[in-house]
Amino acid sequence: MFFLASKILGFLLAPVHVAIFLCAIGAALLFTRWRAWGRALTTMGALALLLMGFTPLGDMLAASLEGRFREASRDPPAAPDGIIVLGGAANAELSAERIWPVLSEAAERLTTPIALMRKYPEARLVFSGGSAALLGFPYSETKVAKQFWNDAGLDDNRVIYEGRSRNTLENAVFTRELVQPKPGERWLLVTSAMHMPRAIGVFRKAGFPVIAFPVDYRARRDVWRLEFPGGAVGAFALVESAAHEWAGLVAYRLTGKTDALFPAP
Hints:
The chain has helices at about 1-10, 15-30, 35-55, 55-65, 90-100, 110-120, 140-150, 170-180, 195-205, 230-255; strands at about 80-85, 125-130, 160, 185-190, 210-215. By secondary structure, the chain is α/β, with parallel strands linked by helices. It has 2 domains: about 1-65 and about 230-255, no CATH class; about 70-215, HUPs (Rossmann fold). Strands 3-2-1-4-5 form a 5-stranded parallel beta sheet, with helices on both faces. The radius of gyration is 20 Å and the shape is elongated.
């Protein structure tokens, strides 16, 4: 039920979608006796789109998320017993159609572990990610990761694949069940820096302490640096991703899936 509700509400309440809905409803009302409401809603929607597309709003929302856990490159961890990689770096549907791994903007989730496995030859590698599609999809991210890592020359005997999980909560629960971590073991968690606070909180709640190894940074550190605005599409995507994570932190805390609203190191 939680998975279904999160998908539906996530679509309806996504900031860009809300702005578009306001514009569409407002435009329709312009042709009725509620044209005053139509002008107000259209104006609100247009201003929201301008704000999200041509201001540092996305960087402002994302910067605190990405800065919550220290950059791994600045603090190299001691040799871990294992490395957990969360899904979200591939487009499973396009990969099935093209019969080739099609990666997303979060591709570092799959590329970084290749270097980590060479650096730590004794570590185990776990990929956790099934299909997050609302109606399900037979070609899961696990298959994409397996093909990508095999093509990259990674020893498949060192990799464990968990392909049932549909969200971060299931990532934590199913991975813990699969690897049965022992007290004192060191496990790195590789996921996008923006997603790391929620992921760490969920793994802690599931009784699986992990060490953050954030990748896939997307926000500028200096959000107030003046520069000519880039394309609105990229800005929209950053706002959407950051808003999704903030909403996820709130929802996971309210439903008891984490012990802290904004998990800290």
